Amino acid sequence: MVPLLMTRPLAAAKRFTAGLPADARAGLQVVHAPLIEIRPAGTPVQLDGAKGVIFTSANGVETASRETTARLPAYCVGERTAQAAMETGWTASCAGICADELVAALLQQRPEGPLLHLRGAHARGNIAQRLEDAGLPCREQVVYDQVLLPLTEEAQAVLSAQNDVIVPLFSPRTARHFANLCGDAANLHLIALSQAVAEPLKGLNCKALRVSKAPAAKAMAAAVLDAAAQLTRLEGQRRAE
Predict the structure, then answer these.
(1) Which of 7, 48, 134, 166 could form a Cys-Cys staple with 35, CB 3.0–4.6 A?
(2) pTM, full prediction
(3) What confidence tens digit (pLDDT) does each residue in 213-223 have?
(4) Could you give the domains of the chain?
(5) Phi, psi (degrees; rounded to nearest 5) at 58
């Protein structure tokens, strides 16, 4: 079996692997080793006249939905985030697959403001400021933190076994943290969600580093399946020899 090291928060990692085809999952040794823990900020959501909210992750949706009973129009990054928002009662739509696309879509749509970006403590894209500067009133509130975690003992054992390991990475911060922790990367097949995620990994002497064709779960899953298929074929060839 091909080891698949999942570094996402546990709930997100399980959603990702559950979305893989059953026959593919059967050939993978899934090792859950979250490098980030989502911790709510514990403060009430300050809607204060907001006419709509922005969600850039399912974590923001889940946290905000627990902290307030209000449900407003929600403009989301990614189909998965939009789906999570709809499931918890927000009138949600996907406005792009990245911060740049969301900003462009909102500036074109010009929804009624002010808007409120409900985000994590560590975020990229500067969405609220960019919208504000372009004349669309928007502010932001941190509703959760992303706390870095060490590698688990199981993950360390998998990484030190000198076998091929597939490691998908979904954020620049997680990628940077993993690069600092992983040690010898010679047998690692790294898959980055985007070029920004790949950047902290380029200094590693890994076996392969590929970038997902799109910053979305479906494209990441396709990259994981492709890497797993290649490794399975190589293993079969070695046995035949």
Answers:
(1) 7
(2) 0.86
(3) 998 889 999 99
(4) 2-35+149-240 (3.40.50.10090), 38-146 (3.40.50.10090)
(5) -65, -25
